[in-house]
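So, can you check what follows?
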Amino acid sequence: MTYSERAKAIFEEEIHEFERLKETLDEHFDHTVDLIYHCTGKLVVMGIGKTGIIGHKMASSLASTGTSAIFVNAAEAVHGDLGMISHDDVVLLVSNSGSTNEILNVIDPLRKIGCTLIAMTGDPSSPLAQGCDEVLPVHVDKEACPLGLAPTTSTTAALLMGDALMVCLMERRHFQAENFAVYHPGGALGRKLLGRVKNCMTTNVPKVQLDTPFRDLVCEMSDKHLGITMVYDGTTCIGIITDGDLRRAIQKYNDLHITAKDIMTPSYKKICQNALLTDALAIMDQYNITTLAVTETKQTDEIIGIISIHHIIDFA
């Protein structure tokens, strides 16, 4: 057997174990996601040795995708690092055997602190599992190591479970690609998103007057390709019309001999040109909108541009 053939066999062995592990997922996983999501403190991941390395990766991945998380080495915890943990925290204890002394030694102190405890272990009947509030079983029948000694399949199973937690929490938090700017300011996406609104806004502002006929305002919106138009009374902007407003108007009015004032929304969200793109994204997320009017400063109302989510994505 060649090395590549042996590697393929190892892949198959581990995949078989993960397929079996997948079938064990149940309401305990759901409850764990809810516990972490509703945590008012932070998630503390604890482990030691090779599972500690996996735990460190879990905490890093969770922290970079919207879940406040840190890793604490279980051996260091009882020598002072427990001081980083508060009663509002949820602690995820990772141990394949569930009987590692360094892990078991932190359970009572964590109980005294008042934390909620989750065990991720290959043995759901272990002392660790019995001492925690919730258990994520990651049992594998055999390691890929031919001696059955080196952590291989078991550590990958824990890594896989951690990835599943991370993705489910990302989705629960509606964490979007654009949000990476906040947590990855050193990356290419982060550097670009930490630019200013003025860097990617358009100054070609769609404009109609209060008495602009329906057909003409549709043409203005189509020509500017932003899905909105600002509504003016003379030189003063007093409202906005969006694609949604157009759809509602078509459903509401049998006769479309209407004007901008009949369907506009009198309020609109705005941001100044020197604001960070992350600030613009935050406003869009908060109000579930895709465009903002841009003013020269916070104190002025005159609109000098429009920024949309598509501008930001293209810019990034």
In short: The chain has a mean pLDDT of 90. The CA atoms of residues 228 and 242 lie 4 Å apart. The first strand starts at residue 43 and ends at 47.
